[in-house]
Amino acid sequence: MARRVFLHVGAPKTGTTFLQDTLAANRAGLAEAGLLYPDTRSGNHFQAAIDLIEHPWGGALDKARGSWDHVAAAAMRTRGDAVVSHEVLASASREQVRRAHASFEGAELHVIYSARDLGRQIPAEWQEKVKHRGRMQFGAFLRVVERSPRTGADEWFWRVQGLPDVLDRWSAGLTPAHVHLLTVPPPGAEPGLLWERFAGILGVDPALAVETVARSNASLDAIETAFLRRLNVALKGRSISQPVYADMVRGVLAQQTLSRRFKQIRTELPPESRPFVDEVTAEWREWVQGSGIDVVGDLADLQTRWSEGKWADPDRPRPRAMIEVAIEALAEMVVAESERRRGEPEAVRMLRRLRR
Amino acid sequence: MPATAAQREVVRRLDGPAPWLSELVLTTPVGGRGRVDPGEGDRLTDRDLLRVCVAALARWSRTSAPAPVPATPRVLRRPWHRAFVVAGLSPHAHAVRTALAGAGRVEGGRRPTVLVVGGPLDAMVAVHWRRRVERGAGLRWRRLWAEMAARGVLPRVVDLAAVAEEWTQRVPSGSVHVLFGGSTDEVLALAGDLVGASPGDAEPARANAVDTDLLRLLNQALATAPAASRLRWVDGDLAGHLHRPWTRAPGTPTHELEWAVARAGTLADALGSGPWQVHGDVRRVVPSTDAGLARSVPPAETLALALEVLTSLEGGPPWPTA
Amino acid sequence: MADRVIMHVGAPKTGTSFLQDRLFHNPEVLAAQGIRYPVDRADGQFLAALDLMQLTWGGLEKQAGGAWDRLAEAVRSWPGTAIVSHEILGYASRAHVRRALESLSAPGGGTEVHVVLSVRDLARQIPAEWQENVKHRRLVTYGEFLDQIRDPDRTSTLASWFWGVQEVPEILDRWGGELPPEQVHVVTVPHPGAPRDLLWERFMGVLGIEPTSLAEGTDRANPSLGVPETALVRRLNERLRDVVPNERYRQFVREYLVHQTLSRGQTSARLSVPPDVFVWADELSRSWRDHLSARGYDVVGDLDELVPAAPLPWVDPDHPDPTEVAEVGLKGLDAMVREAARLRDVEIELHEVIGNLQEGIARFERRPTERVKRRLVREAGTNPVAKAGLGAYRALLGKNSR
């Protein structure tokens, strides 16, 4: 039976994929050091997570039935420690959290929640929606976020990003010392710092992660997101398969490798929304201090550093920059389609042979 | 059919051509792109005259019989000779190949010693250009570089690090040698040592840029001719005129020079850090940035060559004579 | 032997594609009127023209070997009137013209040769030619284009090509120099605002064809691109330079993006010429008009139509409104994504078919689903894999039919 089980439940857009990839790449080494990251067919715990939270997720739920029990059982079988990690776990209801806790009856249960400053999280969640064919403008999204209740939330954003709410649900029955808040270092911090903090909580030597994993640069800037959103509007109602859509997004992302591209413009909150964010952040910081939970990192990391200078409205992108994005994406699509046609002569030859 | 001003000027520059040659030039319609029938008053450019020459040569070529291809004598590889292979396209590679062949050594065999013989990037690309043109390409020197720079990729056979890498998959890396000698003698001596032979006479790489330029123009003019016509030039009577050795000019075109130097630098780093044996200075792969070096093939030079070739045509006219 | 040969040698962008399309699709109707338009494929005469003038054309020249001789043979063997039509023929030098006319006429003489040149005013021809350049992957800006064509020395290839196919008096002189002027016909394209059928009537009149008889055709309209559309495609050309082969560019950019997407339903500004260029073009056109009327050619229409009408408002495609171009970009990408999706679906189905075929000819009992077969038939025209797949399908059906 496992000694300690760590449940890393979120939040989305806090480098969780990076941490999970690092765990996966170093599975063997970590296992030898006494930490099990249970393996699955997909390599991550996504299916287990949606099984637990019973989220339809575009038809994937059916195939995921039974995954949670499978992962939990695997975790419990080890003699040392185990870690289960997926950021959608943050949305679990109290009932689902009870079920999760019950799966690890007998082991010392820890909950880890990584958090980043709210000023970066809001635009990040919006971009994520757009990358998944969302059509909502940033302004509209922001309004929804501002108006939705933050506790007992139905709205996805607060349900997974609302720090006190998530921890309240997940830490039921746990001592504060076993609830860990991992703060994501601000931009410009040392690259290995996030992993070091995470490894520290898990009780493993960070240097054990000999296989390094590239940080995926898959974040769009304001122009690209705006462009993609407009495209999603145009494509509304058309059945475009996911691989084709993904190709095109990749084409838009290819912008980032060009040095002749316009300077990257980060999506940021307008000045009028900043007091709201600062207020909520202050509220949360107070809650954390009062709760006695273990803070790994620095609460000051949760304070958004607002940038100086004129705010660029992501809903009103500069046309010139949009043109650059359009051309790059068009070119990438033409190149990609040309590459695909390369296989044609081969197929034709094969078909000719079949005729005989 | 009255001849055009350009045709008459070419005949004048041929300086007393045989009557049939004169007629060939004056009666061959000029194909391809350029000014349509520049008139009396217009100044005739080298390009106008070159089009005329190329048209005449192409017409002659379509109907001339190809020269018989000399049978290559089959040389047997002796089992006690060390197996070897010469890889790469540089002028030095060609020298090594021919010198070793001259010494009776045949490439091939099991687990060969691999000699990857390098040279400056612009020299290797010049030889590569020549090979493409010999296979029918019609692209200009500058165009080839523009294509490479646009894709950011060197042709497989020019990317010596990739070549060496591939060989290390097949033979022990100790058997793969990258050679960047300063002089031909130096490289030959080195190659000879590695292979255990005393090299014979080396042949220069037949990749003169002006020759290649004329050949590529002929390819364009013969674009709608059967493929065999295009290749006749390679083996035909004019071998002596169009197979002159590679010279240092032209270098990398100015527009692509920065890219070429950077790319060669990357190549040199890759060559210097591989598991194979390195002899000589790999930085020699960086192309020349000498400001005085010509970086394109001037039409005047190709024209001069074309006139020379026309003058030397033997065998009479391509039409039936009485 | 043909007793009459009509050489329609240009100019580009004067309705020639529509004419050639109709001629191609109505061979029996033409034959009944004693006329033949000899082609073995839709672009057959284009290849013949390439062959005649030994022109390279993005790789297409490889298919052109012998095309002129075949055309000439077909013309000589037709006892009535033969029509040869392609707008690049204007580029032929005197020597090419001589070769052409000699090969098309019967050896003993007796073939009456007519030359037809359809002409449109320069203020419309100039922007149209630049757009053609852009649709053929060129990167030249409109400003550079205008400079090069106005250069008196015409040193660039672009300029020599432009004037080679647009310089009306010269073309008529090269093609018609040795013909009696009544056998040289100038068809003028009416100014904008004229009745739609007027040009067609003029063509039919000069070719001697009953105007309403050519009923079949692909009706493929070839509308011009607007200013922001052309600007976008030119920028795309820069980005795609040397990166995709010509064949793919033709398929995706020229055919799909330009013809099927961007040319449709545009409300953007049309391309025109800047005021100083208009003045120059106007002057040049007048001198052409005067020259031509002095030559006594047969004019179908009105030589005054050579002189430009009032120009459209000038909008610079080299400095377009960024908002408009961005919109065009979106529209284009929308279309490309949908096309990519469609092709992907086709691919998936084709792979299914291939899978079935490979799996077991013995086990291939099940009748092919109608839908898949219909898809193969539909795609076989443009998709080589589909065509081969259809062949294999049919062969197997043949083998397995009782």
Can you describe what's shown?
The complex is a heterotrimer of chains A (356), B (322) and C (402). Chain A is an alpha/beta fold. Chain A has 2 domains: 4-216 and 270-302, P-loop containing nucleotide triphosphate hydrolases (Rossmann fold); 222-265 and 318-355, no CATH class. Chain A contains 16 helices and 6 strands. In chain A, helix 13 (242-253) packs across helix 15. Chain B folds into 2 domains: 5-68 and 214-243 and 298-312, no CATH class; 84-208 and 245-285, no CATH class. Chain B is 48% helix and 6% strand. Chain B contains 13 helices and 4 strands. Chain B has a 4-stranded parallel sheet with strand order 1-2-3-4, sandwiched between helices. Among the domains of chain C are: 4-121 and 158-220 and 273-306, 3-Layer(aba) Sandwich (Rossmann fold), CATH 3.40.50; 335-400, no CATH class. Chain C contains 16 helices and 6 strands. Chain C has a 6-stranded parallel sheet, sandwiched between helices. In chain C, helix 11 (227-240) packs across helix 14 and helix 14 packs parallel to helix 16. Chain C is globular and about 75 Å long.
What spatial order of strands do you see in the largest sheet of chain B?
A: 1-2-3-4
Number of helical segments of chain A?
16
Radius of gyration of chain B: 22 Å
Number of strands of chain A: 6
Calculate the terminal CA-CA distance of chain A, rounded to whole Å: 63 Å
Helix content bin of chain A:
40-55%
The CATH superfamily of the largest domain in chain A is known as P-loop containing nucleotide triphosphate hydrolases
Mean pLDDT of chain A: 87
Largest sheet of chain B, in brief, is:
4 strands, parallel
CATH architecture annotation name of the largest domain in chain A: 3-Layer(aba) Sandwich
Q: Please, what is the oligomeric state?
A: heterotrimer
Q: Which percent band covers the strand fraction of chain A?
A: 5-15%
The shape of chain A is: globular
Q: How many β strands of chain B by DSSP?
A: 4
Which series of helices and strands of chain B comes N to C? HHHEHEHHHEHHHHHEH
CATH class of the largest domain in chain A: Alpha Beta
Low-confidence stretches of chain A: 255-260
